[in-house]
Amino acid sequence: MDMTPPAPEKEVGMDVFFTKMPGVGGRIKAEPEDFVVEEISTPPPPGDGKYTIARVKTRGWETNALIKKISSKLRIPERSIGFAGMKDKRAVTTQIMSFPCPVDEVSGIKLPDVSIEVMYKSRHKIYRGNLAGNRFDVLIREVRTSEDVVRDICREIERTGGFPNFFGIQRFGVVRPITHLVGKYIIKGDMEKAVMTYIANPAKGENEDSYHARKFVEDTRDFPAALDIYPEKLAFERMMISHLSRNEEDWKGAIEKLPQNLSIMFVHAYQSYLFNKMLSMRLKTGMPINRVVEGDIIIDFKKGDVQSRDGMMVRKSNIDKVNRQIEKGNCFPSGAIIGYDSEIAGGEMGEIERKIMEEEGVEPEDFMVHEIPFLSSRGMRRILISPVRNIRWKMDENALLLSFSLPKGCYATSLLREFMKTDIQNY
């Protein structure tokens, strides 16, 4: 079997597989019930406050769309609804949310494929810091392998204590993995290329109407006419096209028309791509991800933080002590999320980080985006290994059920790719 990752994965920096066995193939998310996610969170304490804390279970709802619909039902701003983490649309998810509303209003919400169980009142809302991780039950259909292969993959991951902590393909877009390219053009100050990469740049595999609309924009740059043919569902692209139809060549203004969290995501995606490239290069050189070498920067993991701006460099004098702490799960080696205030590792890891930046033609100071200051990013560091233990599995004919838990900020698809080794469309 070809153990080379598919081209779309390599295009977002995932150049290697960690496990050495052939993949089981198959596909997930044929039905939302094939991908079940339950948050591991620490909700605020009960009290006599204004917030109603509720357990929300959904089928086939993306988090932003859910919040938008609930805010409309409750007639409250979207930002007033508290939640700990984003959830995938093609899934059955359970998460804790907070609403600044009376209990009866929250319990009275009726939406298709949404179940809301009121828990209690609190003085505090839910926020991102409440999330510790997620539990997953994933059904992989149409597998073609033996139990021995699954068992060997599990053993290799558990022997290591985890798997490479790549940013998953959904960080970049499954059908059109281009968000990192938009981010690169933004930090390099080429706003025209950033905009055209996002609104044009048609990709095989996307909806036919979308493909032809993007192709029209790419070929003609006739933005007023593009509004007549651009699908309504591509709302963010239409925002930019509408602006350009009234303000010729105002590329910066077109980006500023987007919600800030979306445009920031472009820069974050490029940082994620660089991290993936660095992690891939470390794996290719044979350096461990579950032990440190001299010059590595470790991140404290006692609080479950996958990313941090605080780290400690490993020196010859403390390397043995640090590796003992890694064995206990108290800390892990890290890679750079490049930003204008990044700390670069020493030794071999530092060479890797500088080499990837050199190949990409970027410097840390590029992430100070003077044209659109809120897109600037300081940078931080991210652990190289996603810890996971006690993976449970069961095979039934041509289906494989995997159950596992991951810390917040780690991607289930980055674990699943080690088992499946298949095309990204099957994730």
Q: Compute the separation of the termini in Å.
A: 19 Å
* Arithmetic mean of pLDDT: 94
Would you identify the regions where 5 or more consecutive residues have pLDDT less than 50?
Answer: none
* Secondary-structure element pattern, one letter each: HEEEHEEHEEHEHHHHHHHEEEHEHEEEEH
Q: Tell me the radius of gyration.
A: 22 Å
Main structural class? alpha+beta
Helix content: 25-40%
Strand content: 15-25%
Count of distinct strands: 16
| Number of discrete helical segments | 14
Shape: globular
The main pleated sheet reads as: 9 strands, mixed
Question: Care to describe what's here?
Answer:
The longest helix is centred in the middle third of the chain and has 25 residues, at 260-284. The strands form 3 sheets. Strands 1, 2, 3, 4, 5, 6, 7, 15 and 16 form a 9-stranded mixed β-sheet that branches. Strand 15 (392-396) and strand 16 (399-407) form a beta hairpin. Helix 5 runs antiparallel to helix 6 (191-199). It contains 14 helices and 16 strands. The model has no long low-confidence stretch (mean pLDDT 94). It has helices at residues 7-11, 63-74, 103-107, 147-160, 179-187, 191-199, 208-220, 223-229, 235-246, 251-256, 260-284, 319-327, 347-360, 412-420, and strands spanning 25-27, 35-41, 51-59, 82-83, 92-99, 114-122, 131-143, 162-164, 297-300, 307-308, 312-313, 331-337, 380-383, 385-387, 392-396, 399-407. The radius of gyration is 22 Å and the shape is globular. With 427 residues, it is an alpha+beta fold. Helices cover 35% and strands 21% of the residues. 41% of the residues are buried.
